[in-house]
Predict the structure.
Amino acid sequence: MKPGDKVICINDNNLYHIPVRCICAGLIYTLTEVFRCKCGNVYVRLAEVDKFYNMWCPKCDTTNYTKMFFHIERFRLLDQAENKEEEQVSVKVPVVNPN
């Protein structure tokens, strides 16, 4: 994954099965940054979530007030084929009245 890629959220729950702030499973986001924490965890920042918050990395147990980021495993790349299929499904078709 790289900045500019479209991704779909596949996991918006934390360890207690409470939704994580600002992301929702099934929604599409745009990556603005992909970075590695000093502990090795890989995180992403999203164009649609432009908020600052006290963010915590559980592996290295550090907290920083920074622009929100999310673990990369919460997302997967949106396939071009899926995107086209969604576009076709969303096309409005006129309803013909049988009367």
